[in-house]
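Case 331 in the screening queue. Each case pairs one protein sequence with one candidate compound; here the compound is zinc ion. For every case the pipeline is the same: read the inputs, emit a complex structure as tokens, and attach any notable structural observations.

Predict complex for case 331.
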Amino acid sequence: MSEYRKDPVLNQWVIIAPEKTISYPAIKEQAIPENLPEFDENCPFCKFNGEDTKILLKYDFRNNGKWDLLVIPAPNPFLRVETELQKEGEGIFDLMSGTGANEIIIESPKHNEFTYKMDLNRVEQIFWAYHDRIVDLKNDKRLEYLLFFKEFGITPENKIIHPHSKMIATTFIPAHIELELLSAEDYFSYKDRCVFCDIVKQERKEGIRVISQNEDFISICPYASRFPFEIWILPQKHISHFEMSSKIMFYHLAEIYLDTFKRLNKVLGNVPYHTVLHTSPVQEESLEFYHWHIEIYPILNCYSAPQSGGGIFVNPVKPEDAAKALREATF
Ligand SMILES: [Zn+2]
Ligand SMILES: [Zn+2]
Ligand SMILES: [Zn+2]
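Case 331 output:
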């Protein structure tokens, strides 16, 4: 039986139309090979030696004199901080110069260290790298938003399997984030509560869409999931900015993130996925209506792309079924 479900954050309807034909082993056919070498001579990150590239951040947390995690500018950046910010109008059109930044976070020196295989410390350090880049770049008052995301094995053009995430810093707020901010502010204006805090509270009470929880975080398949096995990781307590999280929260985030990826791997295999950090605009003070979170979208055979130019999403996997499979996975 199909149904419409309304996403309380975006105020958008999604069609949940479970298909009996989808079985998890079939989904596993999407998997990226697991038996890759630790070093691949064709991979730019394996070969990275620092020549001609400015290193923006370097961690050597194993203290062996080599790098463990690096942040570098993207090789062909389409945005640069050196560009002077200029705004102009051309009739009804608005134009801004390409001021901003594109960076790459190389998460490990090992080519085949998939997220679910990482140790807790490394995952925690990846989030510290995000934190440190935000703290550094927010000093540039022209930058409004820093979008951190990861596209693992998604398209043929993005075949670099080597663990890395990307960051784009812009002088505007990305459209999807702007929509979340506006809707969350609207919800707050008549309920006087944060919509994300309400989601956390209700999901804890109902339990059917919960994957796992720890002291600081909850991992759920959202009620109106647009994609099969869509996952959100949210702080249990209200906090608007990722970079304002406490030290212990980074540890607990790494814990639940790793736990979630181990479960995903167990249920779906080493599938391509997209992750994105949704946080508040960097120049804003603490906000009472917005609550940072991480969204994860595995890319599957039954991937739910918008079915039309109008943005109708048809999701063939019930979020309750996805959450149950992930919750019950043992590893
Ligand atoms: Zn590599
Ligand atoms: Zn909240
Ligand atoms: Zn979001």
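Case 331 observations:
- The chain has one domain: 3-328.
- The helical segments are 24-28, 120-137, 175-191, 195-206, 247-268, 319-328.
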